[in-house]
Amino acid sequence: MSISGLIIFAVANLTVLGLAVYCFAKVFRMPAEHMQAPIKIDTGEFEKFEDFPDNNQASKS
Fold it and tell me: How many domains does the structure of the chain reveal?
């Protein structure tokens, strides 16, 4: 393999490795208050079901 091939190989691998390290560092340094569990995200999806009785309340009656 020629020297230019080794240089291109090294630059490509170092670029991919550097971007992976950058992305992992950015994700793991994110403060906890900016993260939300999926259960806390209100999509408004269940607002149309407010007129229906709750299944738990219907079975208690």
Answer: 1
| Gap between the Cα atoms of 13 and 24, Å rounded | 17
pLDDT by residue (tens digit) across 23-38? Answer: 999 988 877 676 666 6
**Is residue 3 helix, strand or coil?**
helix
Q: How far apart are CA 61 and CA 55, in angstroms?
A: 10
pTM: 0.48
Query: Which letter, b or e, does each residue of 9-38 get, where b requires 16 or more Cβ atoms within 10 Å of its Cβ?
Result: eeeeeeeeeeeeeeeeeeeeeeeeeeeeee
Q: Does residue 52 register a pLDDT over 70?
A: no
Structural domain boundaries enclosing 53: 3-60
